[in-house]
């Protein structure tokens, strides 16, 4: 039961420069039994995901560079980000995630306190799953569970495929190795048969020579003469 519950727990990355909004998002997702990680900027979100931008490193040489190979081991099932943030906006963060081959399948949700139709349409066209108006409510969070479930299903399907591929590779390697052993045994059996045939031929030849020897012929005629 404990292991099953752990496997079904979703991990949410919440991005917002407002401490109050971060606390609200964290509380709502924890009510829904989700694990939540919060950061206060788009650049920190990229760093957590292992996709730190180059221009950030140039502007701040003391900031450690995080390459895709050093990506966080923890699985992220959903990213929810504020639209208006200093530096990198939520839209910019969305574009970076969707451009990444390793992260594009993570659902991204945008939230904003301003109801601007053109902004909403642009985010949805770029690949956002939902656009929520603040304050985010528990009913909004409940709508996101199907999106998070998709990432769980994909990760669980990828692992068996990996195992099947490894088993196929092992079978191919074994198939190349096994036939060599019966071949050696066949060669040995053939050599033994040839040796037995040669010995049989030698015995027949020897027997024929003994039957045709002069001594045997003379002894046979001598016995006839004596009688």
General description of the model:
There is one protein chain. By secondary structure, the chain is α/β, with parallel strands linked by helices. Helix content is 60%, strand content 11%. It is built from ten helices and five strands. Strands 2-1-3-4-5 form a five-stranded parallel sheet, sandwiched between helices.
Using brief descriptors, characterize the structure shown:
5-stranded parallel beta sheet; 10 helices; alpha/beta; 227 residues; 5 strands
SSE run: HEHEHHEHEHEHHHH
Total helices: the number is: 10
Tell the overall outline. rod-shaped
Major β-sheet annotation: 5 strands, parallel
How do the strands line up in the largest sheet?
2-1-3-4-5
Report how far apart the termini are: 110 Å
Quote the beta fraction: 5-15%
Mean pLDDT: 77
Low-pLDDT segments, ≥5 res: 54-58, 61-71
Tally of extended strands?
5
Helix share, percent = 55-70%
**Radius of gyration, whole Å:** 40 Å
| Structural class by helix and strand composition | alpha/beta
